[in-house]
Design goal:
The protein is an alpha/beta fold. It is about 25% helix and about 25% strand. The protein has one domain: 3-Layer(aba) Sandwich (Rossmann fold), CATH 3.40.50.1820.
Length: about 220
């Protein structure tokens, strides 16, 4: 099994049997989305939030500076930017977190993978390839990092998993059009995508948080 990443963990009540693993964006850390927990109007079930810290590594597009990153970003050209080996390495790290949540009492069907930007790309990559059906996949301001991997047979278990995608019209980090292409790709392959768009940049807004909370209440009951 891959190493277990350090993570911030928050339990909304004792003995949770539901887990949300939420990955941060490039250069941030697990603290980034902790404040949102109190704003989500969560379903009335005990939930464990896990906010892992990505490994520290050099990032090519940022002049090789070392920072927390789920994978290297090789270029500003989206056709060539993704370090696929790095994506797959972090996928195994997130799989290890899923395995721990199962051991601690959250079955796969009660686990949501969530993330923002790079973290959202990892939520899609890991969630859509996981061997057991998950509760849902939430991908904020992001894209499918390895589109061709969706043709793999091991995607079958989560073909019908609820997917929440959201993006800002004025995102200058991950252009809106690129995210929409990922949405269309998932829809064409039969995935059920709930799509939201907002007049914002590469960020999260209050309307989006309300939509996230409503979606979590639906998929977790």
């Amino acid at each position: 099994m891959a190493q277990l990443l350090d993570a911030i963990q928050i339990e909304t009540a004792p003995n949770p049997t539901t887990s949300i693993i939420w990955m941060h964006g490039l250069g941030a850390d697990g603290n980034d989305f902790v404040p949102i927990v109190q704003e989500l109007e969560l379903p009335d079930v005990p939930i464990r939030f896990v906010f892992p810290h990505a490994p520290i590594q050099p990032v090519t597009i940022n002049y090789g500076h070392r920072m927390r990153a789920w994978y290297d970003v090789l270029s500003s050209d989206f056709a060539e930017r993704t370090d696929k080996d790095g994506v797959r390495a972090s996928q195994q790290l997130i799989e290890a977190l899923i395995a721990r949540e199962k051991e601690r009492g959250s079955p796969a069907g009660r686990i949501v993978l969530a993330g923002f930007s790079q973290g959202g790309a990892m939520a899609l990559q890991t969630g859509l390839h996981h061997a057991e059906r998950l509760a849902g996949v939430m991908a904020l301001s992001t894209y499918v990092p390895i589109p061709e991997s969706l043709d793999d047979e091991d995607c079958a278990a989560n073909r019908d998993v609820p997917v929440f995608m959201a993006h800002g019209h004025y995102d200058q980090v991950i252009p809106f059009e690129y995210a929409a292409q990922s949405r269309d790709l998932l829809a064409a392959k039969g995935y059920s995508v709930e799509w939201h768009e907002y007049p914002m940049a590469h960020s999260v807004c209050m309307e989006e948080i309300a939509h996230i909370g409503a979606w979590l209440r639906r998929v977790l009951g």
